[in-house]
Design brief:
The chain is mostly helical. Helix content is 63%, strand content 0%.
Length: 139
């Protein structure tokens, strides 16, 4: 009997060969179902070629069309995905100082500042960097 279920526990049970149902076997199945995070689990599994179609299918049709509960989402992935060691790092946005400076200068979101960054010439990018460097040196 397990007492809690988090992101790591759910992924480990889906990827393990024992196929232990952490929601049904827990002390409080209702509480365990509420603790199950469907989005991070699906995102983590979607990085693997053998899981992406199942994860896409349950996200595209299952949640909206059939109003799946967290327990149903978990059990679908638990019984459909073959046991295998799956470890991957999540993709992170690379930090770019010029984009951050454009965000600060024009009060824009990252996506809009990134679009502007792509349009700017190298001279314009250098001017923005120099403007902020001179401002930082004055402080």
């Amino acid at each position: 009997m397990t007492t809690g279920m988090g992101f790591i526990e759910a992924l480990n049970s889906i990827n393990s060969s024992s196929k232990e149902n952490l929601i049904r076997d827990s002390d409080s199945p209702v509480a365990a179902e509420k603790l199950y995070p469907p989005f991070p689990v699906a995102r983590s599994l979607s990085y693997h070629a053998d899981c992406i179609l199942l994860v896409n299918e349950i996200n595209a049709r299952g949640i909206s069309t059939f109003n799946l509960t967290n327990a149903m989402h978990y059990e679908f992935l638990l019984y459909c995905i073959t046991p295998k060691k799956r470890y991957s790092k999540w993709i992170k946005i690379e930090k770019n100082e010029t984009i951050e400076r454009i965000m600060e200068l024009m009060c824009l979101s990252y996506e809009k500042a990134n679009d502007i960054y792509k349009i700017l010439s190298t001279e314009d990018k250098k001017k923005i960097d120099d403007m902020f460097k001179s401002r930082d040196q004055r402080k």
